Amino acid sequence: MSIDIPETNFPRVVIVGGGFGGIQLAKNLKNKEVQVLMIDKHNYHTFQPLLYQVATGGLEPDSIAFPLRKVFKHQKNFVFRVANVEKVHPTEKYLETSIGEIPYDYLVIATGSTTNFFGNTEIESNSMPMKSIPEALNLRSLILQSFEEALLRDSINEQEALMNFVIVGGGPTGVETAGALAELKSHVLPNDYPDLDLRRMQINLVESAPRLLSSMSPQASKQAESFLKEMGVNVRTNDLVVSYNGTTVELKSGRKLETTNLIWSAGVKGSVIEGINPEVLVRGNRIKTDSYNRVSGYENIFAIGDVAAMITEETPNGHPGVAQVAIQQGKLLSKNIINLINNRELKAFSYLDLGSMATVGRNKAVVDLPFIRFQGIFAWFVWMFLHLLFLVGFRNKLVVLVNWIWNYFSYDRGTRLIIRPYRKNKDVMDEERNLVHAKL
Ligand SMILES: Cc1cc2nc3c(=O)[nH]c(=O)nc-3n(C[C@H](O)[C@H](O)[C@H](O)COP(=O)(O)OP(=O)(O)OC[C@H]3O[C@@H](n4cnc5c(N)ncnc54)[C@H](O)[C@@H]3O)c2cc1C
Fold first, then answer.
1. Cα–Cα dist 134/124, whole Å
2. Residues of the chain with pLDDT under 70
3. Is the dihedral of CA 163, 164, 167, 173 positive or negative?
4. CB-based contacts of 280: which residues, under 8 Å, 6+ apart?
5. Residue 63 lies in a domain
6. What per-residue confidence (pLDDT) applies to 436?
7. CB of 49 closer than 6 angstroms to any ligand 1 atom
8. Cα(46) to centroid of ligand 1, in Å?
9. Looking at the domain assignment, is residue 306 inside a domain?
């Protein structure tokens, strides 16, 4: 059954996903002769680059989330619905969603990506991913609960397992999380838990490649590793987690680590909607598109951002899964959709790489810009400035800035709250997820 959507004489562009790509596209379609209908399973946009700060008690979740309706409150041609998109019917041109059927003239899939456990169900059910706000809050609760639990154990081995953190994946997320945990260990936890011997707290960062931050320059990798080591993190490159049963991590090198806290940031895969021809899915479960972001084999279906793999001679593996790709593709696609409607020529996408960066801790960051590379305190200020710039919403920018200034001078992290205790059981999480859906 079709849902109630305002009538329109203009073509309807349905955008699935209010992430970086979806928002940019919808904004650029303002005042154009189309109806923009955005669907997202959440009513808010998540600023994923700062999820790790929520997980480690540095920021509250509402400072990195922004209501999607508020982003577009002055855009007359914009309609929003909260729904989970379940299937696309390309021939009949409609979407099957949790709230009913939604017809489209043009469909843009901007659904981003989800955690990739590479088929290892044991790791999936025992580890902590960090791809959404609920997951970051689960991790925050688990970290704090582990220390509360450690206080109650007499056995040194059990205490150590509770205070041992293993982070898998040495990309920006893994590096930033390891650095934030090391700062908690040095500045915050000793005050909160004077009864625990925090010298026994371990932070291990495991990376299968020979170096951390492999998408950045060797100089940045080397400096990030040296910052982390200085902060007491055990960096284990050239190694791989092969199994984790909830208490023991086995590495390919044969080493075993006892821990109740495994954080998985080792990979993502595209969040593809059912109904898209499986033959157009490429490595990383991404949807193959042409250089106009048009999904191979379809006239009026497009994919942008993390879920898209624009395979061309210059980009045989598609573009990197970063916010700038999604933003730039969203911007150009808004023009191309209008060109298509008016039978004008389409413009091919060309990615302008603005550089990449990662922060390790206070005064410690690494920045690779196209024309210059630098590390240390200046890099840390640049990192903060750019994150504030791209954060959605003036209130959020202000709250985050005030928090950072407070944390810097007080050496504190204010949000060490177990609001929603984490129950370490995949079935419980699935049950909770289903309840949310049932309510919708
Ligand atoms: C922890 C972390 C740190 C990161 N740090 C950085 C960084 O420092 N710099 C950087 O450039 N990039 C970073 N990234 C990557 C960056 O966040 C992504 O590249 C970017 O978000 C991709 O934008 P997108 O629009 O493709 O998808 P997203 O921003 O992921 O948005 C997808 C949207 O689609 C919605 N959705 C998905 N499936 C459905 C469905 N079936 N029905 C309805 N709605 C759906 C989701 O709710 C979401 O709102 C980081 C990612 C993570 C997870």
1. 16
2. 425-440
3. positive
4. 287, 288, 295, 296, 297
5. no
6. 46
7. yes
8. 7
9. yes
Is 259 near ligand 1, meaning CB less than 6 Å away? no
Q: Residue 440 has what pLDDT? A: 42
Claim to verify: residue 133 and residue 174 sit in the same structural domain: yes
Q: Whose CA is nearest to atom 39 of ligand 1?
A: 111
Tell me if 376 sits within 8 A of 363, measured CB to CB. yes
CA–centroid distance, 1 to ligand 1, in Å, is: 30
The CB of 392 under 6 Å from ligand 1? The reply is no
Cα 369 from Cα 275, distance rounded (Å):
40
Per-residue pLDDT, 383? 96
Same domain? For 286 and 412 the reply is: no
Q: Alpha-carbon distance 276 to 97, whole Å?
A: 15
pLDDT in tens, 131-182: 999 999 999 999 999 999 999 999 999 999 999 999 999 999 999 999 999 9
Give yes or no for residue 305 CB within 6 A of ligand 1. Answer: yes
Does 149 qualify as catalytic in the annotation?
A: no
CA–centroid distance for 421 within its chain: 22
- CA-wise closest residue to 305 among 1, 104, 65, 21: 21
Judgement on whether residues 279 and 396 belong to the same structural domain of the protein: no
Using one digit for the tens of pLDDT, what is the confidence trace for 197-236? 999 999 999 999 999 999 999 999 999 999 999 999 999 9
Residue tagged 């630098």 (tokens): 374
Type of residue found at 38: M
- Is residue 137 located within the same domain as residue 102? no
Whose CA is closest to atom 5 on ligand 1?
A: 49
For residue 52, the ligand 1 atom closest to its alpha carbon is 1
Domain end marker among 312, 341, 370: 341
Q: Which of 48, 287, 353 to mutate to test the pocket of ligand 1 (most atoms within 8 A of CB)?
A: 48
Catalytic residue among 60, 176, 183, 225: 176
| Residue 333 in contact with ligand 1 by CB distance below 6 A | no
- Give distance in angstroms: CA of 306 to centre of ligand 1: 7
What residue numbers bound the domain in which 290 lies? 12-41+83-115+269-341
Residue 70 inside a domain? The answer is no
Tokens matching residue 323: 């916010």
Number of domains in the chain: 2
Ligand 1 close to Cβ of residue 272 (< 6 A)? no
